[in-house]
Amino acid sequence: MYQLEKWQHSSWQKDTRFYLLELCQDLFGNWIIKCTWGSAVKQDFGRSNSTICPDYQTGLLWYEKQADRRSRRGYVSKDKVSLS
């Protein structure tokens, strides 16, 4: 069963680079972290990676670690919304 109220989404930008981060569920209900990054000026979609989390709490911890890492690397948050 999907738990849309728990899904997270954040985006950052630094100069000509972007980074998107999502904590969401796949079709089977597994919690996954999806990261997408690349050039904000090129006409492509960048690169992405998805990691299955053992549970929501672990996924949230990994999500927050990635968000902190973006800040430490000088990225500026564009938004942080809960998808509900």
Task: Tell me briefly what this model is.
The chain is an alpha+beta fold and 84 residues long.
Write a structural description.
By secondary structure, the chain is an alpha+beta fold. It contains 1 helix and 5 strands, in the order ββββαβ. The protein has a 5-stranded antiparallel beta sheet, covered by helices on one side. The chain is globular, with a radius of gyration of 13 Å. The mean pLDDT is 91.
Name its key features.
single chain; 84 residues; five-stranded antiparallel β-sheet; 45% strand
* Low-pLDDT stretches: none
Global outline: globular
Order of strands across the biggest sheet?
Answer: 4-3-2-1-5
User: What fraction, in percent, of the residue positions are helical?
Assistant: 10-25%
Number of strands: 5
Q: C-alpha Rg, in Å?
A: 13 Å
Question: What is the string of SSEs from the N terminus onward?
Answer: EEEEHE
Mean pLDDT: 91
Helix run count: 1
The largest β sheet comes out as: 5 strands, antiparallel
Query: From the helix content, strand content and strand pairing, which structural class follows?
Result: alpha+beta
What's the N-to-C terminus distance?
Answer: 14 Å
Q: How much strand?
A: over 45%
